[in-house]
Input
Amino acid sequence: MPTAFLFPGQGAQSVGMGRELAANVPAAKSIYDRASKVLGYDIAEVCFDGPAEKLDLTVYSQPALFVTSVAALAAINEKFNDAVESCGYAAGLSLGEYTANFFAGVIDFEDALRIVAERGAAVQAAADAVPGGMVSILGLERDRVEQLCAEAAQGEVLQLANLLCPGNLVVSGTKAACERIAKAAEAAGAMKTVPLAVAGAFHTTLIQPAVERLSNALKNVRMKQPRIPVVSNVDALPHDDPEEIRHLLVQQVVSPVRWEDSMRWLIGRGVNQCFEVGPGRVLRGLMKRIDRKLECRGVMDA
Output
């Protein structure tokens, strides 16, 4: 039974995440302890106690999600016999792609955590420099949303950022452009538009200043060939060459997340069971919209 591990991205965080794992699984607690030494602050306290205003800051939420997902990995074999050994594929939504590459042996824990922390800081700085936003658009096809982006941009940045599942697309751009497309999408028949609580226009050219900083951070990190395929957000394909993976991880911050295409690639390889490894239920919800027959289980709430 081909199995894939799926790792969540920013937005899945919530205060209290990982507390039970750390209390009940010694290996999970040790992950938080190791991470705190690398980061120079108590990441467990941020995850367990918040406050939400702090946890939701990109500079904290990205390392917090990475560490909590790795802690969940430590608990998997206690809950699901031999799940790790039988896992043949991995994918992660945006930030989660770093966790997927850690799981696949591409990058070790300490290096991955340092890069994730730098990524969070770089993206936060870029977002602070040019205020932007993101809007989830439900119930419209991709072609129609792209057309609305072109019309609502009015010379500003506005583009598809997350292609999540049928009828669930996220656009990203300047705040004014996001406000315009929200109104236009509703007028065009969208079921719903939801402004997202994020720091900026992620996965667009407005985050370009983060590229050089992230590239420099990744430049000297040792990366190995993955032991299992990891599907890239950029092109919805796996890659074996560590240098290509390094390049794609940089490009990912300014490229649309092709999540639906990534899941369809896995389904095309015969994957019929997935585990959402980390907090939240977002990835399971998306999978139900992509293929209702595919079993997708949670780890942290199982």
About this structure: The mean pLDDT is 95.
